[in-house]
Amino acid sequence: MSSADTSVRPFHLAIPVSSIARAREFYGDVLGCAEGRSSEQWVDWDFYGHQLVTHLVPESTAATHHNPVDGHAVPVPHFGVVLTMASWRALADRVAAAGIQFVIEPHVRFAGEPGEQATMFFYDFSGNALEFKAFNDLSQLFAS
């Protein structure tokens, strides 16, 4: 698919987690993702229209690096989605209410510049880094 193609297809991502029960609490209860197929070893999630699969890897340890971006140490690797601003704010409130510590607090980065965006980073219980973004102007998603 070229970058000019405007149809977006769902991505599929499989990540390790140390507990299926905790995956259900975090991805289901906190993030609000609907559960699809599952077994004792994995769960499919509707991750905002994309397919996220949490696979049980009891002794998995996430290796994380940080890169500087706009004055913050951004965890690498990370994944997430671009939400509407209202959904982004609601998610930030749910994450905070659940007592999950932000790696990078919800804020607007690149203010007044191309690519201005709201962003937040936090880890799941297994050390997988997540970023959620929102744009007032979605045409700024790939602004340079």
From TrEMBL:
It comes from the Bacteria. InterPro entries: Glyas_Bleomycin-R_OHBP_Dase, Glyas_Fos-R_dOase_dom, VOC_core. Residues 9-135 form the VOC domain. Gene3D superfamilies: 2,3-Dihydroxybiphenyl 1,2-Dioxygenase, domain 1. PROSITE patterns: VOC (PS51819). This is VOC domain-containing protein. It comes from Pseudidiomarina piscicola.
